[in-house]
Amino acid sequence: MHHLASRLRHLPASCGPVRLIGVDGHAGSGKSTFAGQLARALDDAPVLHLDDIASHDELFEWTGRLLTQVIEPLGRGESAFYTPYDWRTRAFEPPRALPPAPVILVEGVGAGRRALRPYLAHLLWMELPHEDSWARGQHRDGEEQREFWAGWVTAERRHFAEDPSRPYADLLVRQLEKGYEILPGPAKRVGPDQMLTHGDGPSAVC
Known about the structure:
Structural class: alpha/beta
Radius of gyration: 17 Å
Distance between the termini: 4 Å
CATH superfamily: P-loop containing nucleotide triphosphate hydrolases
Number of strands: 10
């Protein structure tokens, strides 16, 4: 993980002074867990969870709010203030600050969407088939979320059909029994100088 963190730190800034790193993949593919570990390797870099931007009424129609509340202020070198959504109360909470940082991770389904890619320094895709991802997610959320998942699967299928992220990923992230394997993404041509790093345990997962 530290090799990947070093690589990301040395990328050119992509949104004002910030290197925005997108972590995308199907729901249940392990984005939040991976982003948390990567954030720690980046000296506790901020993580913006797109679950805080989306809502029941706007599962994927949140681009305008993200651009206005987050991308535009960061692009000016200012702190962003976004209104996180509470999925239990179905209401938006008071604004939460997101100051500019050398690296900020944007984690969630749709992090690599067309409207955001111009502001990303790098896009990572969690390499797990949608059937396996959705099965993991539904097992995690339990029976009480069955109805929500039925609607979500339909919405996610439609989103990625209209606005796919994986073809534009710089790197693919594959979870192993211990750690992660980082592979060149479809956006990059595989060359002899591109290094693959393999998981070797919890203390150095990349």
